[in-house]
Amino acid sequence: MTPRGRRRTGMVRPYTPAEGHAAPTRRSLDLATILIADRDMPLHGLSPHAYRVMEHCLPGALSVAEVSADLQLPGAVTKVLAAHLVDSGHLIARNPAPAAQKHDRALLERILNALQQL
Fold this sequence. Notes:
The chain has helices at residues 48-57, 64-71, 75-87, 105-117, and strands at residues 34-37, 62-63, 91-94. By secondary structure, it is mainly α. It holds the Pfam family DUF742.
């Protein structure tokens, strides 16, 4: 318990930076999703936390996890903020590149043989 009239410092409820929202509007966002800022969108009128997300994404593409770590926000909160910015057109969300698929060994051997014959 804190003494009467004194506030706790350093503790912010997760829904506060997300403007009261507890879940992202887009289920497709995960921590590996790449966020790219639209440089033509105005930044005025954004909440302070959304503005900070945009500041971090403007120099280049960042993952949700990187933005979360840089801003020291929980990943779930960052996903909510990013989803709202994607909805408003401020951010573009891209899924990360898929893992390499297994290659056809016979095809690779034919390519190797053709290269050796050059």
